[in-house]
Write a structure and sequence with these properties.
The chain is mostly helical. It has a domain at about 50-55 and about 115-315: MetI-like fold (Orthogonal Bundle). The chain is built from 14 helices and two strands, in the order ααααββαααααααααα. Helix 6 packs antiparallel against helix 12. This is Binding-protein-dependent transport systems inner membrane component.
């Protein structure tokens, strides 16, 4: 029994010694991150949107089926002609109904649509940003490490070809072939957004591979894969975080632009579709409470990604 307890203590002590430095690095990184006010503000905004996306029913004042004057579904009556004439209705706080950001021309609450649209924006931004990073960063590392070889030439010529691919026509063709869905929008954005990642990471890798610690790893017999992903990749992570944030923000704005142009999945809720609907309804200059919130939501989420990305660059920079 005493031997078993001693073995358990030894195991716990070994685990503590192994994990304690990692937790210390996390604490140190968080401390440096909180020194950046932009990063903290961006993280706060990001968390708010994540909560909206995951728990919209908690924050939205109504369900997506709610219509002004009729209350909660199921509806047993139709709007009167006089009620229809008052739509879109400005913000109301209980008289004749509760809609803090007013309604659209169909009587739906703007705040409700705004909150329920956060999921679509977060999904597209994170998915497209991660896809472009997972493609661009490894290709940039490989291309830079094998610079001036056939591997580098093949990757860079493919990048040149992709740069000649116009984004909007490509997306129109993709939608025509595969249908207008959120997944296809993400694929279309990711296919054209990884190129900058690849080129910038390649340039940084060309410089890093000449450093003395990389030469020492080669002399020690480390494989190319270990050198690339163990010795070089940690030093390009700061740039990777910046471009991940840029790609995520760009994807959100691109999806909103495509929705405004009619190239989006109109069965899902999104801020771009809200802007398109107000433009189609002709209330751009009359219903400010319908126009400003989705535009402001897009701006804040894109800014949050940028703030977090640039703060993470400092936190993950080995030179810091």
């Amino acid at each position: 029994m005493a031997t078993e307890r001693s073995d358990d203590r030894s195991t716990l002590e070994a685990a503590r010694k192994r994990w304690e430095p990692r937790f210390e690095r996390l604490r140190s990184g968080w401390s440096r991150f909180t020194e950046h006010r932009m990063g903290v503000v961006g993280l706060f905004i990001f968390v708010v949107y994540v909560l909206w996306a995951l728990f919209p029913g908690v924050f939205a004042p109504h369900s997506t089926q709610w219509v002004a004057y009729l209350g909660e579904p199921p509806f047993d009556a139709r709007l009167s002609a006089e009620q229809i004439e008052t739509l879109p209705h400005p913000p109301a706080f209980g008289d004749p109904f509760f809609a803090p950001l007013g309604t659209n021309s169909d009587g739906q609450g703007v705040l409700t649509l705004l909150i329920y649209s956060a999921y679509n924006a977060m999904y597209i931004g994170l998915a497209a940003g991660l896809l472009s990073t997972l493609v661009g960063v490894p290709l940039g590392l490989i291309s830079g490490f094998y610079g001036d070889t056939w591997i580098d030439e093949t990757i860079q010529r493919f990048v040149d070809i992709m740069y000649g691919l116009p984004f909007l026509p490509f997306l129109i063709v993709l939608v025509a072939i595969r249908g207008m869905s959120t997944t296809n929008i993400i694929i279309g954005i990711a296919v054209t957004s990884w190129l900058n990642n690849c080129i910038v990471i390649r340039g940084e890798t060309l410089s890093l591979k000449e450093r003395s610690y990389v030469e020492s790893a080669k002399v020690a017999g480390a494989s190319d894969t270990r050198i690339i992903f163990r010795h070089i990749m940690p030093n390009v992570l700061p740039l990777s975080f910046v471009y991940l944030a840029q790609d995520a923000a760009g994807a959100i704005l691109a999806q909103a632009s495509l929705a405004y142009l009619g190239l989006a999945d109109f069965t899902s809720l999104s801020w771009g579709i809200m802007l398109r609907n107000i433009q189609n309804s002709g209330y751009v200059f009359q219903a400010w409470w319908w126009l400003i919130p989705p535009g402001l939501a897009l701006m804040l989420l894109a800014a949050a990604f940028y703030f977090i990305g640039f703060s993470m660059e400092d936190v993950t920079n080995p030179q810091q």
